[in-house]
Specification:
This protein is of the alpha/beta class. The chain has one domain: 3-Layer(aba) Sandwich (UDP-N-acetylmuramoyl-L-alanine:D-glutamate ligase). It has a nine-stranded mixed beta sheet with strand order 5-4-1-8-9-10-11-12-13, sandwiched between helices. Helix 4 runs parallel beside helix 5 and helix 9 packs across helix 10. The longest helix has 15 residues. The radius of gyration is 20 Å and the shape is globular.
């Protein structure tokens, strides 16, 4: 049965009492907006006349702000550099109400910054500032694990956001899974292709189609019209269930919605709930934030997946890294239910 507004409202109310920890690569997203009026005389590239600049938490930090937008308690655990970008990111997280006690500055590393230049609603270029090859001193790593272990004792759910930038190591994964198993916490994984760590006893993983095929090590022949009869996709989902010893896998399919695969149950398809797509930036962050928060609030898996699908439908209708609040989400569910 599709998720109805009264049940969604009940879940959203319960989610306000939950605390979810996001473990992963913390980033700062910068957006430079402007207009193109001419081509540079120095090279055949557009000259963007800047009209506005904004910054917001990105990477794992964006998942935390998505949780706060849904009025869920949120904290982050990860690495920062000792630089101005770290100061700015901490300030933004504080303004959003995110606990950044476990966002640890490491000497010799650099805070990851992704800067997007946007003109006439089109992204012209993205510039990445990062330094992920700096070795982390053992003493600092042990301090991070100790703080993480302490934080894990006070939360109701955990999200692992792996961008392959160095914050998510096997030691971190083993600690999260060990405490989560002991405390019966739901654990969600947003995986990174090419960064193969050993996960076990996951509650849910949420790769997109491209990531799912890459992690499974299989070529993607392209989507079938109906995801539940897409044999290669189903084979990949089954392989990922086994690889991660996961209870559930959600493969996000863009305009096709989601494929839900649960151990011992037939695969299910949830069609997209997007009204209009402006920008898919951060939609995956919205999905896993809403999904794990709902599971931590007692939702059945199907309910949690549908709630997260509606939330993604709100976010893709906005420009830039975005989120949605409970009122927007409920309004979207009510309108979609009448169609």
């Amino acid at each position: 049965m599709p998720l109805k507004a009264p049940r969604a409202a009940e879940l959203l109310k319960s989610m306000k009492t939950r605390q979810v920890l996001v473990v992963g690569d913390l980033m700062l997203d910068r957006f430079v907006y402007g207009a193109v009026t001419r081509i540079s005389p120095e090279a055949p590239v557009p000259v963007v006349r800047v009209t506005k600049e904004t910054s917001m938490p990105g990477g794992a930090s964006n998942v935390a702000t998505n949780l706060r937008a849904l009025e869920v308690g949120a904290s982050v655990a990860g690495m920062l550099g000792k630089d101005n970008a770290a100061v700015e990111l901490r300030w933004l997280l504080q303004q959003a109400g995110v606990d950044a006690e476990c966002a640890i500055p490491f000497a010799g590393s650099r805070t990851i910054v992704k800067e997007r230049i946007i003109a006439e609603r089109q992204q012209v270029v993205r510039v990445d500032f990062e330094q992920t090859d700096a070795p982390i001193p053992r003493r600092q790593h042990d301090k991070f694990l100790a703080l993480l272990a302490l934080k894990l004792e006070s939360v109701d759910g955990v999200i692992v956001e792996d961008y392959g930038k160095g914050a998510v190591t096997q030691d971190v994964v083993d600690l999260v899974l060990s405490v989560a198993e002991r405390r019966s916490l739901p654990v969600g994984l947003d995986p990174k292709e090419g960064h193969d760590l050993a996960f076990s006893r996951l509650t849910v993983a949420t790769p997109n189609r491209k990531e799912a095929f890459a992690i499974a090590g299989l070529p993607d022949p392209g989507p079938a019209e109906n995801p539940v009869t897409d044999t290669p996709l189903l084979g990949v989902a089954s392989r990922l269930l086994q690889k991660w010893n996961a209870e559930n896998v959600v493969i996000t399919l863009g305009p096709q919605g989601m494929l839900l695969v649960t151990r011992g149950r037939p695969p299910r398809h949830v069609p997209t709930r997007a009204r209009e797509v402006f920008d898919v930036s951060g939609a995956g962050d919205t999905v896993i934030a809403a999904l794990v928060a709902a599971l931590a609030s007692g939702a059945r898996f199907q309910e949690a997946a549908e709630l997260s699908n509606y939330a993604a439908g709100v976010v893709v209708g906005k420009l830039g890294t975005a989120s949605c609040d409970p009122a927007e989400l409920l309004a979207h569910i009510r309108v979609s239910s009448r169609r």
